């Protein structure tokens, strides 16, 4: 089985590794591997914290992926000898005022109605868990099974693992889909080269629908949703675990790494393909973070970046065969692509290789967006 994967972010890379392990001859096409949202993401592995009513299938997918993470990382690190910064020290969500606390209470009740344990903490208990929190923090919620990973280390390890298993990396832009006899037969590159394939996977984030030759309506419209993040550094222990805060209704999070990096994010802006970092975006992040953790102003500034989350019309992933035989979609992972990497890689590799597909994949087929004729 010859497979071409367009896009080497976490989803394309994870799938390439898994499909190669399953025996396929895989070619990855990307002019700049791991340069999209996967290079900007904070790497929270928190399926529950962004839960909203009606997103239960996405929650199940997220929990399935979180449960696979330990084994996925262990295999990846053993194969490559590279560390990924994987941590399972939980997620603390805290509320700044009483309205924020009411929201966390609602979230806890919703979680409990789904059978997911959530531990409510008083303000004092929050500060015991995270001593740098501001004295005014009203209360919180602890999700002990959540964690985080460093997405840049993860993509470096996935690139190495894919190479180990013989995946060919072509550093060019895919320009068009080659269609023969009503089926996808390969990909045309921007230098005119054609890579023939039995199956093609589009995993190019919000650019997944950009290729020439795609019949209209085949790939659901995936929009870019901009997110700005700030990377800070500390030489002394500052945060023990990923901490999310609601500050007067506005959400902010901080993800600490063992090497002293702290990722502070993130804005969410519907501005098309705009990756400019703005003063307003950074100000909002720093303002809210300082309310929760006043000591943040002492940390060293390292980097600011903006990335584009791939958002589908219902904000859930789009994974599976499209209406064009031989062409598969693997995009739309929006705010959760890093969390969803292990399960998505397994699902997409199984689909590409005609293997047994995990049941949790059911609700995420591209066919849900097909317009009836
Ligand atoms: P991308 O990583 O965007 O990769 C797409 C790749 O396609 C790129 O490398 C690009 O070069 C390539 N490409 C584009 N066009 C072409 C072409 N024509 N030919 C070949 N290649 C092409 N998720 C979490 O789970 N936890 C988090 O904490 C988290 N935080 C985030 C914070 C921010 C600020 C942002 C922006 C995202 C965050 N996410 C998080 C979401 C996560 O980053 C995405 O869901 C995930 O990275 C999507 O991966 P992808 O492989 O689909 O796309």
The beta-strand count equals 19
Give me the Rg, rounded: 21 Å
Q: Mind describing the biggest β-sheet?
A: 8 strands, mixed
Mean pLDDT: 95
Q: Report the portion of residues in β strands.
A: 25-35%
User: What percent of the residues sit in helical stretches (DSSP H or I)?
Assistant: 25-40%
3D structure, described in words:
It catalyses: glycine + O2 + H2O = glyoxylate + H2O2 + NH4(+). The protein is α/β, with parallel strands linked by helices. Helices cover 28% and strands 27% of the residues. The strands form 4 sheets. Strands 5-6-4-14-15-16-13-17 form an 8-stranded mixed β-sheet, sandwiched between helices. A hairpin with a 2-residue loop joins strand 14 and strand 15 (250-256). The model has no long low-confidence stretch (mean pLDDT 95). Flavin-adenine dinucleotide (FAD) is lined by residues 6-12, 29-30, 32-38, 40-44, 173-174, 203-205, 207, 210, 227, 229, 265-266, 307, 309-310, 331, 333-339.
Show the helix and strand layout.
Blueprint: E1 2-6, H1 10-21, E2 25-29, H2 37-40, E3 44-45, H3 56-80, E4 91-95, H4 98-113, E5 119-122, H5 123-129, E6 139-143, E7 147-148, H6 151-164, E8 168-170, E9 174-180, E10 183-189, E11 194-196, E12 199-202, E13 223-233, E14 242-247, E15 250-256, E16 261-265, H7 279-292, E17 300-311, E18 318-321, E19 327-331, H8 341-352
Parallel strand pairs: 1-2, 1-12, 2-8, 4-14, 12-19
Antiparallel strand pairs: 3-7, 4-6, 5-6, 9-10, 10-11, 13-16, 13-17, 14-15, 15-16, 18-19
Helix pairs in contact: 1-6, 1-8, 3-6, 3-8
Bound molecules: flavin-adenine dinucleotide.
InterPro entries: FAD-dep_OxRdtase (IPR006076), FAD/NAD-bd_sf (IPR036188), Gly_oxidase_ThiO (IPR012727)
Pathway: Cofactor biosynthesis; thiamine diphosphate biosynthesis
Protein name: glycine oxidase
């Amino acid at each position: 089985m010859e497979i071409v994967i367009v896009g080497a972010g976490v989803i394309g890379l994870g799938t390439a590794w898994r499909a190669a392990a399953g025996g396929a001859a895989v070619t990855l096409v990307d002019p700049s591997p791991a340069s999209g949202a996967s290079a900007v993401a904070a790497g929270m592995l928190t399926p529950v914290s962004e839960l909203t009513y009606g997103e239960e299938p996405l929650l199940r997918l997220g929990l399935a992926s979180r449960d696979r993470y330990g084994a996925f990382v262990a295999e990846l690190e053993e194969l490559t000898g590279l560390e990924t910064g994987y941590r399972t020290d939980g997620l603390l969500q805290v509320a700044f005022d009483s309205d924020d606390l009411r929201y966390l209470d609602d979230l806890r009740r919703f979680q409990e109605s789904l059978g997911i344990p959530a531990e409510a903490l008083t303000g004092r208990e929050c500060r015991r868990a995270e001593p740098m929190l501001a004295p005014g923090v009203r209360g919180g919620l602890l999700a002990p099974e959540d964690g985080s990973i460093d997405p840049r280390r993860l993509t470096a390890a996935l690139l190495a693992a894919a190479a180990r298993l013989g995946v060919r990396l072509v550093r060019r832009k895919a320009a068009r889909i080659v269609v023969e006899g009503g089926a996808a037969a390969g990909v045309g590159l921007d230098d005119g080269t054609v890579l023939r394939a039995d199956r093609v996977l589009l995993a190019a984030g919000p650019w997944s629908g950009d290729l020439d030759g795609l019949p209209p309506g085949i790939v659901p419209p995936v929009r870019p949703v901009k997110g700005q993040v700030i990377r800070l550094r500390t030489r002394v222990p500052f945060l023990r675990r990923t901490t999310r805060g609601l500050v007067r209704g506005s959400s902010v999070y901080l993800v600490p790494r063992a090497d002293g990096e702290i990722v502070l994010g993130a804005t969410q802006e519907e501005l098309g393909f705009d990756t400019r970092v703005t003063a307003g975006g950074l100000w909002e992040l720093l303002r809210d973070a300082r309310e929760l953790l006043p000591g943040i102003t002492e940390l060293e500034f390292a980097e600011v970046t903006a990335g584009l989350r791939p958002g589908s019309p219902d904000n859930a992933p789009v994974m599976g065969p499209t209406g064009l035989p031989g062409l598969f979609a693997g995009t739309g992972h929006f705010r959760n692509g890093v969390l969803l990497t292990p399960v998505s890689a397994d699902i997409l590799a199984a689909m590409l290789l005609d293997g047994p597909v995990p049941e949790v994949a059911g609700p995420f087929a591209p066919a849900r967006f097909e317009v009836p004729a």
